[in-house]
Specification:
heterotrimer, A mainly alpha (324), B alpha/beta (332), C alpha/beta (330), B: 332 residues, alpha/beta, 4-stranded antiparallel β-sheet, C: Rossmann fold, 8-stranded mixed β-sheet, 12 helices, 12 strands, globular, AAA+_ATPase (chain B), cell membrane (chain B), P-loop_NTPase (chain B), Peptide/nickel transport system ATP-binding protein (chain B)
């Protein structure tokens, strides 16, 4: 077991190294994209550019530049932005991370719970009108663009219906730290959570329904029935447990991607200054240190959540444990 | 004495776009307490469906079951789901062909057995688990404590089938339905499992319906045999009588098709020409008539009924003609 | 004595399993371990054993569908062990295979006509007209009718599909066919038809066969000689009737006694040996004789020394320290 974990950690570090080198090369070694020219500003004289190059160490060999940047990100944590000169990048990411994490984790709880409920009900009433209705609804959920849903939600909860009893509790857009007021934190995030969750509810409900229906054809389901289990017990105990594996796989990828900045649109629509928002801004201004920092943060999350999924996998399905 | 289970005129049909197709057609038999009944037939003969129908486990919404299935005098066809559920795994248990896929892969053997015990008794979790270990020991699994803590895929095929049997026996069933329990196993393991099944009536007082395609398996295990062909029982008798004096040409064909391990090696096996009829294209008369070498006009209008008392066969060949006809098939 | 058609000399096939960067995490499985035998022209050797004994792996090595780890395969005087490319393709014309599941081995999108013609076309045997003639003849030889030519595999029953598979294997007039459990997926009555077909074909065409099966009755019906495998080793090999009448290896003895007999009167008289436990895993074989933990005759020597396959006075070979019913003096 210990060797498995060590192997996994080595694997993670290797993946992170690969990603960081790749991103570094894309932004620093692409011909015609000299970062010094960007920092020096438009129409800067060659002398200015040269001075900037020296100042930022951009004239040194690429491996040194890469090592310096990694040192500034991970060890000294004093990497500064190229755009807002002097502003440190790492603390910004650390400030944005809890916002994104709050948004995605809350949404994830909602979508997992609701999707399992919908998937199980649809599979239980397969081919009936309940099943069809639920599947049409989830298809609608998948097809609605998240920024549109968010804008609509804002329109109703912040605008036209804000003064009705229904939505008068909704606080103004923006994030309230959990430590400041848990209640307000919850209220400010509830609508974004639902907005973000809708797409995934639709997706996961459909995947789970398909997996459940497939599992219900297995021999061991017939054994479970022959034991005298009720149809509900067969579905919830035997079939669901085996079908959740496909959902866990999806969840690991989706969660990592969202925490890593994939919730950008939701963050923008609801004015949440999360990692996605930060990446978005950095890309607009081509703020390379900021891009490096957010990309590395994001890949850490994707890789870590994948590792967690593998462990959860093994917990759910002993077949995976044995395969090692 | 009343039989334990009595089936009268059982039919299983499927609704299809071409109308109703009869997969099991007028099957009647009964089984006494502690009796082992073997049902033999090839794929598509309806033998599995017959047994699945007993507990309403066919699991196809298009299946229609008619006739009568009485267990200890209680009619099971059309019975309330709740009553059937209490019988399943309780008084009537079932084991299936493929032990590789018959157990849920995500639960331990012990958990799956104690789950069944807890459905049918009010034993505590702990007591049920202890009983599960006892059962695994009783079916001859080595190191039953460790086996209970294992997942199905950690056991070999033979061990898994023992675990499945232990689970089926967990509530002392009066009747065990075994659907090809040894087909997926190697011969040496099959011999172990058959020995275990023969012992059930002494250790657990269970009657067994053993479904198989292997005449050797019934010959060595069953007290009584029913041979099925194309949805009907074509011959049924005590095992000794059936093998000593088989009545139906299909039974002859089956016996002749089996390569023997001893005696003279026949240069060619006896074969039954052609294939069983598709269920929707069954002839009007005897379903075996297109493959039978002894067809007569009276075979064609309607399928012959099972006649005889102890040894019944659905065939028009008269007693005095039988030996000659059989020799024609089996000596060829 | 003439040279045999096929000679297998000390053939081994090992696999490594398990993941991991280090060697420690892997385990070595000897699926086939130091196996030697020959098949004469026109002879059928039955290869029996239970699942996991390595009989299918051996069959796949012989047809070169798997690469061997060590040892030598000689077909008609040619060493085919490491053949590749054109040479291997030429060998395949002499060496065909029939599989257990005919459905999985037939392309579902092609008609029978094309399936059977394919080897002829690939090996450039004849022009369009002669290929068409050959296909018709082959189809008739395996007991199918001309109207079957334009059907797809899914339109056939299991037995008919196996006939198509046999027709394809016969197309190039091979000298050796490796048949891997060709009848075990079929119903008894259909199984008998296919066994009779194979019996006729080997008699009429003089094709040699390596017939892999787990059913001793089937093997007896078709094989001239039989080899019994246990955990990657051949434990007994000799004339079929000789071995089935009186097995010399305790495993063969148990295997024969485990086969259920369709005769209750005889079944009662039979002395049944029920082996305890399951065959051990090839990843973790026992020391000494692989059969000793389940053997009722095992002594101390069986736990330490692996018995070699030795020829007995009656012509058969047995790998056992205490062969049943045979005097040790030989």
């Amino acid at each position: 077991m210990a060797s498995t974990i060590i192997r996994r950690l080595v694997h993670m570090v290797a993946v992170l190294f690969g990603i960081s080198v790749l991103v570094f090369l894309i932004f620093f070694a692409t011909p015609g994209a000299n970062p010094a020219e960007r920092i020096a500003g438009k129409n800067a004289s060659p002398q200015t550019v040269a001075r900037v190059e020296r100042q930022f160490g951009l004239n040194r060999p690429l491996p040194i530049q890469y090592a310096l940047m990694m040192k500034k990100i991970f060890i000294t944590r004093n990497l500064t932005s190229y755009v807002n000169l002097g502003e440190k990048v790492v603390p910004q990411v650390f400030k944005a991370a809890p916002i994104t994490l709050s948004l995605v984790a809350g949404a994830a709880i909602i979508w997992i719970v609701v999707a399992i409920a919908i998937g199980a009900v649809a599979a239980a009433f397969r081919n009936s009108w309940i099943d069809r209705l639920l599947m049409v609804l989830s298809l609608i959920g998948i097809s609605m663009p998240v920024f549109w849903v968010g804008t609509m939600a804002n329109l109703f909860t912040q605008g036209i219906w804000h003064h009705t009893w229904l939505f008068s509790w909704v606080p103004p857009l923006g994030y309230v730290d959990f430590s400041k007021s848990p209640v307000l934190w919850f209220k400010s995030l509830l609508i974004p959570w639902i907005t973000l969750a809708i797409l995934y509810i639709g997706l996961y409900a459909r995947v789970l329904r398909a997996a459940l229906i497939e599992t219900m054809q297995e021999d061991f389901i017939r054994t479970a029935r022959a034991k005298g289990l009720s149809e509900r017990q067969v579905l919830l105990r035997h079939a669901l447990r085996c079908s959740l594996v496909s959902v866990v796989t999806l969840f690991g990828l989706d969660f990592g991607v969202l925490v890593g900045g994939g919730a950008l649109l939701t963050e923008v629509v609801f004015g949440l200054q999360g990692v996605g928002y930060l990446t978005y801004q950095a890309l607009e201004t081509l703020d390379l240190p900021m891009i490096m920092a957010t990309v590395i943060y994001a890949s850490v999350f994707v890789v870590v959540s994948n590792a967690v999924v593998d462990i959860v996998y093994a917990a759910f399905d002993p077949r995976m444990r044995l395969r090692r | 004495m009343n039989p334990l289970l009595e089936i009268v005129d059982l039919a299983v049909s499927f609704r299809t776009s071409n109308g109703l197709i009869r997969a099991v057609d007028g099957v009647s038999f009964s089984i006494a307490e502690r009796e082992i009944l073997g049902i033999v037939g090839e794929s598509g003969s309806g033998k599995s469906l017959t047994v699945l129908a007993i507990l309403d486990l066919i699991g196809d919404p298009n299946a229609v079951v008619t006739g009568s299935i009485r267990f200890r005098g209680i009619e099971l066809i059309g019975q309330k789901p709740e009553t059937l559920r209490r019988l399943r795994g309780g008084a009537i248990a079932m084991i299936f062909q493929d032990p590789m896929t018959a157990l849920t892969p995500v639960f331990t053997i012990g958990a799956q057995i104690s789950e069944q015990i807890r459905i049918h008794t009010d034993l505590s979790r702990h007591a049920a688990q202890a009983r599960a270990v006892e059962l695994l020991d009783a079916v001859g699994l080595p190191d039953p404590h460790r086996a209970a803590a294992r997942y199905p895929q950690e056991l070999s095929g033979g061990q898994r089938q023992r675990a499945v049997i232990a689970m089926a026996l967990s509530c002392n069933p009066a009747l065990l339905l075994a659907d090809e329990p040894t087909t997926a196993l190697d011969v040496t393991v099959q011999a172990q499992i058959l020995e275990l099944i023969r012992k059930l009536r002494d250790d657990f007082n269970s009657a067994v319906i053993l479904i198989t395609h292997n005449l050797g398996v019934v010959a060595e295990t069953a007290d009584r045999v029913a041979v099925m062909y194309s949805g009907r029982i074509v011959e049924t008798a005590d095992t000794g009588a059936l093998f000593a004096d088989p009545h139906h040409p299909y039974t002859w064909g089956l016996l002749g098709s089996m390569p023997a391990l001893d005696g003279i090696r026949r240069p060619r096996l006896t074969t039954i020409p052609g294939l069983p009829p598709a269920l929707d294209r069954r002839p009007q008369g005897c379903a075996f008539s297109p493959r039978c070498g002894f067809v007569r006009p009276e075979c064609l209008p309607a399928p012959p009924c099972l006649t005889g008392t102890m040894h019944q066969a659905a065939c028009v060949i008269a007693d005095h003609e039988r030996a000659a006809a059989r020799n024609q098939v089996l000596a060829a | 004595m003439s040279t045999p058609l096929l000679t297998i000399d000390r053939l081994s096939k090992t696999y490594t399993t398990g993941s991991g960067l280090t060697r420690a995490g892997k385990s070595l499985i000897r699926a086939v371990d130091d196996v030697s035998f020959t098949i004469a022209d026109g002879e059928t050797l039955g290869l029996v054993g239970e699942s996991g004994c390595g009989k299918s792996t051996l069959g796949r090595c012989v047809t070169r569908l798997l690469d061997v780890s060590s040892g030598r395969i000689t077909l008609a005087g040619t060493d085919i062990t490491r053949q590749r490319g054109a040479a291997l393709r030429a060998t395949r014309a002499d060496l065909q295979m029939i599989f257990q599941d005919p459905y999985a081995s037939l392309n579902p999108r092609r008609r029978v006509r094309d399936i059977v013609a394919e080897p002829l076309i690939v090996h450039r045997r004849g022009n369009r007209a002669t290929v068409s003639d050959s296909v018709r003849r082959l189809i008739a030889d395996v007991g199918l009718r001309p109207e079957h030519l334009d059907r797809f595999p899914h339109e056939f029953s299991g037995g008919q599909r196996q006939r198509v598979g046999i027709a394809r294997a016969l197309a190039l007039a091979p000298r050796l066919i490796v048949a891997d459990e060709p009848v075990s997926a079929l119903d008894v009555s259909v199984q008998a038809q296919i066994i009779n077909l194979l019996t006729d074909l080997k008699r009429d065409r003089g094709i040699a066969m390596l017939f892999i099966a787990h059913d001793l009755g089937v093997v007896r019906q078709i094989a001239d000689r039989v080899a019994v495998m246990y955990l990657g080793h051949i434990v007994e090999i000799g004339a079929t009737e000789q071995i089935l009448a009186a097995a010399a290896h305790p495993y063969t003895e148990a295997l024969i006694s485990a086969v259920p007999v369709a005769d209750p009167a005889r079944a009662k008289q039979r002395h049944r040996i029920v082996l305890a436990g399951d065959p051990p895993s090839p990843a973790n074989p026992p020391s000494g004789c692989p059969f000793h933990p389940r053997c009722r005759y095992a002594t101390d020597i069986c736990k330490t020394a692996m018995p070699a396959l030795r020829e007995m006075a009656d012509g058969r070979s047995v790998a056992c320290h205490h062969p049943v019913g045979i005097d040790q003096a030989a």
